[in-house]
Amino acid sequence: MSTIAKVTTYDLRFPTSQTLSGSDAMNPDPDYSSAYVVLETSDGDCGYGFVFTIGRGNDVVVTAIDTIARKFIGKRVETYLDQMRLAWDECIHDSQLRWLGPEKGVVHMACGALLSALWDLKARRSRMPLWKLLSSMEPEELVSTLDFRYLTDALTPEEAVDILADKKASADARAHDLIQRGYPGYSTAAGWLGYSDEKMLSLIRSETREKGFQQIKLKVGQNLQDDIRRLSLARQEAGPDIRIAVDANQVWDVPQAIAWIKHLEKYDLAWVEEPTSPDDVLGHAAIQKAIHPLAVATGEQMQSRILYKQYLQAGAFQVMQIDATRVAGPQEIILEYLLAHKYGVRVCPHAGGVGLCEAVVQYAMLDYVSISGQMEDRMVEYVDNQHEYFLEPSRICHGRYQTPLNPGSGIQMNLALCEQYMYAQPRIRTSADDE
Amino acid sequence: MSTIAKVTTYDLRFPTSQTLSGSDAMNPDPDYSSAYVVLETSDGDCGYGFVFTIGRGNDVVVTAIDTIARKFIGKRVETYLDQMRLAWDECIHDSQLRWLGPEKGVVHMACGALLSALWDLKARRSRMPLWKLLSSMEPEELVSTLDFRYLTDALTPEEAVDILADKKASADARAHDLIQRGYPGYSTAAGWLGYSDEKMLSLIRSETREKGFQQIKLKVGQNLQDDIRRLSLARQEAGPDIRIAVDANQVWDVPQAIAWIKHLEKYDLAWVEEPTSPDDVLGHAAIQKAIHPLAVATGEQMQSRILYKQYLQAGAFQVMQIDATRVAGPQEIILEYLLAHKYGVRVCPHAGGVGLCEAVVQYAMLDYVSISGQMEDRMVEYVDNQHEYFLEPSRICHGRYQTPLNPGSGIQMNLALCEQYMYAQPRIRTSADDE
Q: What is the ipTM for the molecules in this complex?
């Protein structure tokens, strides 16, 4: 028997605003950051989790993680690892904490970091990468960890078991295929709004011709004439076979989005991402209807499964973009994939921020092995940011993510390398009582 | 000229879980709490704001307020008071902080506390209660402080000016009427789930016969047979003329809500409050359609104007329940009232938590004077909790809120009385640079 002895949370901030990498119409100067948590047991085992942020307010997330960690300190590890639903309930159904959401924003993401750290520990102890652990669980066992509250009008536990059971027999073949071929990625490297036309074109060349990505993404939405010029140049450079997606990062109102997109349609777009507020289900439904057959994509800032459910019910997008640290960890992300599968929508995860590529690829692989069984119609975003700070950085080969094989969720950082980016002293919690 | 010199944030927690006051199907043991902020100028003027919470996590809100306060320290007060839209933009459109929402949860509420403190200061300097200050502004001036981002498919600034202008000529008469008659309240005092039948009935008697409330509200949703028994007893005690609303505090899924409510309909309910997750626009629309003509009511945990917009567009409720500290202060609450008026939905504000009655009545009064011009079809919730800690506690006479006449927003606390409820040392910020 071992107990949860210590939870340390780091406020890491990388000064990315200095290079305008990551700049878009809504986010002119992000400083890619992480509220990174290390959960230690009395045996000396560790589990790792994090929340990706873009700078200011990372301390608020650190405080939330530290506050919620009090629940777990001193408790028996196996109690949670053997019944992850209990860990979920203690975080998500804490009625006092729930008032601060419910199930959204800082507190929800902080719960996600801690639940992810527990799942990471469970995978490490199982000597399996997270995707493998999850896909090796029996359908009933995996579903028993999931919370269907507020979802049963769209998806029941029985349906979830059926979806997973349906893929079980052929799962090993797909796992083998994944290890052989990896999983498709796409590149956002060329697309930041702060880049000159020359830098954009040069990056499109290297990302597609040298690195082998079959899709790129450009940021739009700040100035229509700029968007038209950049898209025209990009299409010319990329040729007709490379898919080009655009991303407005929520800058438009609904009528404005529809009008603006009409001007960009002729460049044969793969999708239009985040045309407006991620909270506006009905607005996205109106935009999707107006720009059909062009696809709306969104999700990186979708607060919870309850929003995803409604997007699917309303036909408000054709591409669902889950994020690894926006919601409450593996248990919520799996529900999102199950919902998407039931409604026949493809999932192309958001990534790019500190650790997001490393984290999200685990779920994409689970989806291929155990949920949708599809891979070639979907892809995971890739940006070459801060990978060097991870012990097992994402590896891309010919535009495809290589399959992680080491135990855990692949997001352990090399803290010695991060020293200079520690914005404040880490918060160390070893007792439930101290403040 | 004066500057913003100091922002102090208090973590106040009242041990209300000991009495089960405030207990409902979702919140068995709330400790009514406040992240209370005092903003001081170099002249020694103060503005007051707060976020109401129910205990754990109040420290996270305090941290968020303290972090956001850095923006304002050392800045000229008049710069903000003369153009409150600037203060809004610096909080809400801080692109790095926005990542933590966007516009929801802890960070959004923290922005609301600071913006409320600035409006409180503006009202104090104007020597007017907040409702009077807002209603005395010219329609164009008030609308210029509001942010219509993500709303223009439902409400434009021009429509907002028209709504306010339409009421301008008759505003003084309604203000006079308000001062004479006060504003209708309703009582939730009898309804907590933790109370025995005897305690409930005795409180129904005193709240209606002695205190004069014309509507009461009971908590439901934990056990159907209990709900039926309690409602039957309550209806018998109250008689046919007292309105009885019920409140499920989000415990149901959509199909369950519809089935459960069918069993309660016969008790002639005023409304069914929070049948499911506040984030589920489509779920509420389905419930409202199924239980029509019985009204769905919700809003106390509605995260932003973007959700309210969709509820109105989808016909998902008939009663809108704004909250004073859930969103980003007066500027967002005014938008909610304007949207409700345009869509013909009545607003019955949520209150009851520490300071919520004191705070929200200001907006109800603004609505009567300048937006809807209606009062007798709507009412503000009232619970007799923690009023004694406020310098100007809500005053109820014959079931009606008396109109606040003192300068400011009426939420200044008597901190000397709160001493024993200070959960941690206050956070004092006097410089933008310190951590």
A: 0.97
